[in-house]
Amino acid sequence: MPLDATTYHVPVLLEESVSLMNITPDGIYCDLTFGGGGHSRHILSKLGDNGRLYSFDQDRDTLKNAPQDERFNYVESNFRFLRGALRLRGVEQVDAILADLGVSSHHFDAVERGFSFRGEAPLDMRMNQRGGRTAADIVNNYSAEELGRIFKEYGELDTTWKIASCIVRSREQQPILTTAQLVEAVKPCTPKRDESKFLTKLFQALRIEVNGEMEALKMALEQALKVLRPGGRLVVISYHSLEDRLVKNFMRSGNFEGKIKQDFFGRTETPFEVVTRKAIAPSAQEIERNPRSRSAKMRAAIKL
């Protein structure tokens, strides 16, 4: 029995995001982060018999949420392989692409996956559990300098050298293999007043490194530009400043530095028309219903 979106993951900015996709009944669409299927089901509700939806997810757990619908195509893949996966299915261009970059509620609530510091579980954090390094591999094998870098870049934490030193000292005594052991290892440098916020950022940094999330996002955005037809829409919901900065710069300029190029005559050259001059945030009512939506920012652009 498929889980519905409310038990697996509450879709964020549901109406707003699907509306920005400007769906037509016979169009071809992509949901790059299927998860609980909330956004995908809403997209399907707008399609006619000839419309098609390709929904990506690398986590095999999400397959149980797939709707039984001939218009729906489940793609078990990281969205970094967007263009190749579509070509394998005979698709060269699509009309709109949606990506909700948030980690699903299921991953945080499934304690055994190791995404949350609440409870004890193996220090895993892999979205794709069929291979690759785990958070334990990183915590136990990265140098203090490497750990400090990811905590600064991906967690935006202060005094990262202290955090890295705490981890190195702890792992010298015994390997850090569980979420509880990691929490204990960093206890000497955990602020008492903001413990939850600190640990959230720490675990976020490790999750991003484990899953190569920044590189995957860059690859997906570059490929989205190639597979969108002229006039096609790109809609992205991000949850922290690193993601939002990449998305904002790419939509503004077609590159990740945000540098707008000019032609010989001084005219700006950009592959997109930005639809959202300012990022769209959830309403107070949505945040009250779904507190995990509070940090969401949505941006949209039209391919020129």
Query: What overall geometry do the principal axes of the alpha carbons give?
Result: globular
**Helical proportion, percent range:** 25-40%
Q: What is the assigned CATH homologous superfamily of the largest domain?
A: Vaccinia Virus protein VP39
How many extended strands? 9
Query: Mind describing the biggest β-sheet?
Result: 7 strands, mixed
**CATH top level class name of the largest domain:** Alpha Beta
Give the low-pLDDT segments: 1-7
State the distance separating the first and last CA atoms.
Answer: 42 Å
Query: What is the mean predicted local confidence, pLDDT?
Result: 92
Q: Could you please describe the fold and organization of this structure?
A:
- The chain has 304 residues and is of the alpha/beta class.
- The protein has two domains: 5-105 and 213-303, Vaccinia Virus protein VP39 (Rossmann fold), CATH 3.40.50.150; 118-211, Putative methyltransferase TM0872, insert domain (DNA polymerase, domain 1, Orthogonal Bundle), CATH 1.10.150.
- The protein has 13 helices and nine strands.
- It has helices at 5-8, 14-20, 38-44, 82-88, 105-109, 135-141, 144-153, 160-173, 179-185, 195-211, 213-227, 241-253, 284-289, and strands at residues 28-31, 52-56, 72-75, 94-100, 228-238, 261-262, 268-269, 272-274, 297-303.
- The strands form two sheets. A seven-stranded mixed beta sheet has the order 3-2-1-4-5-9-8, sandwiched between helices. Strands 6-7 form a two-stranded antiparallel ribbon.
- A hairpin with a 5-residue loop joins strand 6 and strand 7 (268-269).
